[in-house]
Design goal:
This protein has three domains: 21-75, no CATH class; 82-146, no CATH class; 168-261, no CATH class. The strands form three sheets. Strands 2-1-3-4 form a four-stranded antiparallel beta sheet, covered by helices on one side. It has a four-stranded antiparallel beta sheet with strand order 7-6-5-9, with no helix packed on it. Strands 8-10 form a two-stranded antiparallel ribbon. It is elongated, with a radius of gyration of 32 Å. Helices cover 21% and strands 17% of the residues. With 262 residues, the protein is an alpha+beta fold.
Length: 262
């Protein structure tokens, strides 16, 4: 009888001893199974993890392995989206936008007819995505232009730097308030509802002093000269009858396009 009692006592205490072993090895599996979750601060750089707190067993093993089921990667930086015209043979790019009567893809192709181009959109090029879902960073030649020059990779069929010449009347990069230097003098660009560019002579008496000084010191280069693409952030506008632009909206940047200083 004593032996039977001892055996029964051992059988009854066995699960408790096993639980104690799990406590020592895994640091509290019983608390995890009962749903006693430890307070965990939510990562600020990540989105909430759906269903994570509803499954204590999964939570336990995730903590054990140092991973979390369903954990999301950091989101792309927020900010206004813009278009990037990408030359796919070397990954070089420059900002591009649509305008009445011309899509961003058409504008992109008009600047770089000698090579294949593709438009990507995003807050910056690292997170830019094309309409077909492809990311810029997934391109075979993404950022290749930073490392080497690719033979035959041009926009104008002549040299790696430089874009194709297009008339100012169809320049998709022009924005209201931009000043175009023509053979008749400086004119301000104003779009109309019929997708036709209108250029109004600039009354220098009505612009501020800094703008007048900038225009007065501007010398127009011959229109066969081409600007170089620098770090993928060049907005180029080379017209047959308009070779330079200055923006009236904010500070003047006379280095755009073909403007040179005396």
């Amino acid at each position: 009888m004593a032996i039977g009692s001892a055996a029964m006592t051992g059988a009854m205490t066995g699960p408790a001893n096993a639980q104690g072993l799990f406590e020592a090895l895994f640091g509290g599996i019983s608390r995890a199974i009962r749903g006693e979750a430890r307070p965990v601060s939510a990562p600020q750089a990540y989105a909430p993890e759906r269903g994570y707190d509803r499954d204590p067993v999964t939570r336990f093993f995730d903590d054990l392995t140092g991973q979390r089921s369903g954990q999301r990667v950091a989101a792309a930086p927020s900010g206004p989206s813009r278009g990037f015209c990408v030359r796919t043979c070397d990954g070089s790019y420059f900002p591009v936008q649509s305008r009445p009567g011309m899509s961003a893809a058409e504008a992109c192709s008009s600047f770089c007819p000698a090579s294949e181009t593709k438009v990507f959109s995003g807050s910056n090029i690292d997170y830019a995505v094309a309409r077909d879902g492809q990311r810029y960073t997934d391109l075979q030649n993404a950022f290749v232009y930073r490392q080497k020059l690719v033979d035959g990779c041009t926009c104008n069929g002549k040299r790696t730097g430089g874009l194709a010449a297009i008339p100012a009347q169809t320049d998709p990069t022009l924005r209201p308030g931009d000043i175009v230097a023509t053979a008749e003098g400086f004119k301000a660009f104003t779009p109309n509802r019929h997708a036709q560019a209108e250029f109004t002579p600039v009354d220098l008496a009505r612009v501020n002093k800094s703008v007048r000084e900038t225009l007065a010191s501007t010398k127009i280069a011959p229109n066969h000269t081409e600007p170089a693409v620098e770090d993928g952030d060049t907005t180029a506008s080379i017209g047959n009858d308009a070779d330079a632009r200055v923006s009236l909206r904010s500070k003047i940047e006379p280095a755009r396009d073909l403007i040179t200083q005396r």
